[in-house]
Amino acid sequence: MTIPPTNNEAIIEKVKSPSAIVKFQDLANKIQRWAKELGFSDIGISDIDLSAHEPVLERWLANGYHGNMDYMARHGLMRARPAELVPGTVRVISVRLDYLPHNAKFSNILKDKQKAYISRYALGRDYHKLMRKRLQQLGKKIADHCPDFNCRPFVDSAPVMERPLAEKAGLGWAGKHTLLINKEAGSWFFLGELFVDIPLPITVNEYSDRANKLSETVEVTASKINDCGSCVACIKICPTNAIVEPYTVDARRCISYFTIESAEAIPEELRPLMGNRIYGCDDCQLICPWNKYAKIGLVDDFQARNNLDDVSLLELFSWSEEYFLNTLEGSPIRRIGFQSWMRNIAVALGNAPYKEAIVTALTDKITLSSELVQEHIQWALNQQNLKMNMVDKAAIELDKNHRLTLRLTRSIEKGLPRDA
User: Fold this and answer.
1) What are residue 376's phi and psi, to 5 degrees?
2) I need a surface site. Which of 304, 326, 328, 419 has the fewest CB within 10 A?
3) What's the pTM?
């Protein structure tokens, strides 16, 4: 179902009668129930006014913080204007779906430099298709109860400002790391949206109240009041200093960006700071005190597959491209491609303590790899050679990220013992 061009004011005018308002409230109640039946962890409804976020978006793009994600600049302010993206839209239904896996092993893997750390959202099946299917099912249920209804689902699939919309829908608040946080659920969850052309009553709670008050201000980041308070733990723990100021991330310095979104060479000065993180980074969430309230995901598809939650770097580096494609079918990791996968692992091997088996594996692969991967393998070999004749203490000093990782793992073990 796609929303056709519509006059928003005309739609709203049709439902000003008390009986119509009651019917839409009843429908909103049903939508809440249907969403829970479909397995969503939470749901909220918002209006589409994101005008207060436009200056923030413009400045972020002007600073080049989007890196080579050209589509963000190409779509420009459409990201903040839902009715331009999908004409006829008057409300957005935002949904949350928890994904934290059982036995996440955060600290155990981060401390073991021979193991590969993969962002925990990517251990199981790709969430895009699963959530989109559920959103489509929700849309069908609404259509069965509402004549002339049109909708369009989104799950990271278009220029949508999902976090501001989720704030307005009462699902939480955007933290200083820019991710959405909920006091009762932490931040380990996915977001999805259903753009609709009916004026459902909007969700009212503490989160939506704050978000709507901010929408009345000229500069949203300057006047933010939320449950982050004075905490800056996420800013201080970021290995690459990617959170350049509260509520602003320079993607070009973010490990998630250059291990997932960018197919280019990883900046050499940032490589030692990656540690063993080969696909994404969870550090800013791991240090967040609100994640002690995080819920374990109930979707089996999001649990770890192929031992990706506890696997050695050398094992992954031994994969052929065919094995990579076959093994990771249905995984979000597959979309970065084999070359980026090998590039990332090569850097992590360079960051690992010296081991003859690592040098052998790197050397064996270098002539078989693309020019991009070769350059990263050579860097890794140089790092291994530097460590070969060092005593342990000197080798640790070479690891620029060692002390920060130790601080993080101690914090995880103390604050998140269930998930350590």
Assistant:
1) -75, -35
2) 326
3) 0.91
Confidence of residue 401 (pLDDT cuts 50, 70, 90): confident
What is the distance between the alpha carbons of residues 397 and 59, in angstroms, rounded to a whole number?
A: 38
> Which amino acid is present at 401?
N
The per-residue DSSP string of 303-335 comes to S--TTTTS-BHHHHHT--HHHHHHHTTT-GGGG
129, 225 contact by CB (below 8 A): no
- Of the listed ranges 119-123, 220-224, 287-291, the least confidently predicted one is 220-224
Does residue 49 have a known ligand-binding role?
no
Q: Please tell me the number of Cα atoms within 13 Å of 386 on its side-chain side.
A: 16
- 151 among annotated binding-site residues: no
Residue 282 marked ligand-binding: yes
Q: What residues form DSSP beta bridges with 118?
A: 279
Helices 18-37 and 127-145: angle between axes, nearest 10 degrees: 140
- Note whether 285 and 100 are within 8 A (CB): no
Catalytic residue list: 156
- Cα separation, 234 vs 323, whole angstroms: 36
Q: Among 220, 39, 31, which Cα is nearest to 131's?
A: 39
Domain boundaries, the chain: 8-223
